C-alpha cells in the first residue's frame, strides 16, 4: 500500500459537524471514530470500494468480516434476518445489552455487500453505548460498516491517544474524543441457530445466560 497522508478533516468531539461527516462518508471517505469499546474504523455499506479500502488501511486480508454498527434497533431488520425460532431470545438480548458491548451474528440481507462479510451469509450487528458514535452513525444513515481502528498486529486502540499516526494518515476523517472507551472489545454471539458465543468480551457468558438461559 502506498503510504501517504490523506486525512482531510480532524473533528473535535466538542465541535462535530455531523452533516459534513455524513456527506464525506457518503462520498466514500473513511472515518475513525470513538465507540464504547475501542476506536472504530468505518465506511458506508453502500460504498464497496470504501469497504475494500478498510482492509487496505488495516493491511488485513478480507477473511475477517466487518460488523454493522447501528444507531437504533429499528435498523436491525434492514440489514439482517431474525430467525423466528430465536426471535424472543434476540429481542431479550437487544433489550438488556443494547446499547452496549454485544455483537449479535444473524443472517445478512442483500443490502450487506459481500466484501463486507468475507463473502459469507451472516453479519454482526451492534448498537454502541456512546452518544457521539450513535450520532455519527445516525447521520450516516443509521448503519456504518466498522472494525477496530488499528493496523493488523497492533493493539486495538482504547483511546484517541492510542491511535497510531500511521492509521490516522490513511483515512479522510478522524474524530478526537476526550471520553475514553472501555477498551474491551464486544462479546460476539451467534444467534442464527443454537446460541453460541464466538468471543467473550465486555459482556460475560454468565450475564447472557441470566437473560436467555443456559447455552450448550
SSE topology sketch:
Layout: E1 9-12, H1 18-26, E2 31-33, E3 40-43, H2 48-58, E4 67-70, H3 76-79, E5 80-81, H4 87-97, E6 102-108, E7 122-126, H5 131-139, E8 143-148, H6 165-168, E9 173-176, E10 187-190, E11 196-199, H7 205-212
Parallel strand pairs: 1-9, 2-9, 4-7, 6-10
Antiparallel strand pairs: 2-3, 3-8, 4-8, 5-6, 6-7, 10-11
Task: Describe what this molecule looks like in 3D.
- The chain has 216 residues and is α/β, with parallel strands linked by helices.
- The chain has a single domain, classed as DHBP synthase.
- It is 26% helix and 22% strand.
- It is built from seven helices and eleven strands.
- It has helices at residues 18-26, 48-58, 76-79, 87-97, 131-139, 165-168, 205-212; strands spanning 9-12, 31-33, 40-43, 67-70, 80-81, 102-108, 122-126, 143-148, 173-176, 187-190, 196-199.
- Strands 1, 2, 3, 4, 5, 6, 7, 8, 9, 10 and 11 form an eleven-stranded mixed β-sheet that branches.
- It is globular.
Strand proportion, as a percent range, falls in: 15-25%
- In whole angstroms, how far apart are the ends? 44 Å
Number of strands: 11
Major sheet summary line: 11 strands, mixed
| Rounded average pLDDT | 93
- Class from helix and strand fractions: alpha/beta
Tell me the count of domains.
1
Helix content: 25-40%
Outline type: globular
* Order of helical and strand elements: EHEEHEHEHEEHEHEEEH
CATH superfamily: DHBP synthase
Low-confidence stretches: none
What is the CA-atom radius of gyration, in angstroms? 16 Å
CATH topology, which one?
A: DHBP synthase
Q: Give the CATH architecture.
A: Alpha-Beta Complex
Tell me the name of the CATH class. Alpha Beta
Number of helices: 7
Amino acid at each position: 500500500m502506498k503510504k501517504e497522508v490523506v486525512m482531510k478533516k480532524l473533528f473535535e468531539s466538542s465541535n462535530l459537524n455531523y452533516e459534513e461527516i455524513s456527506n464525506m462518508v457518503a462520498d466514500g471517505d473513511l472515518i475513525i471514530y470513538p465507540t464504547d469499546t475501542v476506536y472504530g474504523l468505518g465506511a458506508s455499506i453502500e460504498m464497496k470500494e470504501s469497504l475494500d479500502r478498510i482492509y487496505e488501511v488495516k493491511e488485513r486480508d478480507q477473511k475477517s468480516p466487518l460488523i454493522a454498527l447501528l444507531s437504533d434497533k429499528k435498523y436491525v431488520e434492514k440489514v439482517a434476518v431474525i430467525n423466528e425460532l430465536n426471535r424472543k431470545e434476540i429481542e431479550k438480548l437487544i433489550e438488556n445489552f443494547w446499547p452496549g458491548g454485544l455483537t449479535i451474528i444473524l443472517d445478512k440481507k442483500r443490502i450487506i455487500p459481500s466484501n463486507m462479510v468475507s463473502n459469507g451469509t451472516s453479519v454482526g450487528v451492534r448498537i454502541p453505548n456512546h452518544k457521539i458514535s450513535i450520532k455519527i452513525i445516525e447521520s450516516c444513515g443509521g448503519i456504518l460498516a466498522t472494525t477496530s481502528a488499528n493496523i493488523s498486529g497492533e493493539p486495538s486502540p482504547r483511546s484517541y491517544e492510542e491511535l497510531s499516526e500511521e492509521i490516522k494518515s490513511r483515512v479522510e476523517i478522524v474524530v478526537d474524543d476526550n471520553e475514553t472507551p472501555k477498551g474491551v472489545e464486544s462479546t460476539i454471539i451467534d444467534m442464527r441457530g443454537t446460541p453460541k458465543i464466538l468471543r467473550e468480551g465486555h459482556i460475560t457468558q454468565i450475564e447472557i445466560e441470566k437473560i436467555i438461559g443456559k447455552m450448550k
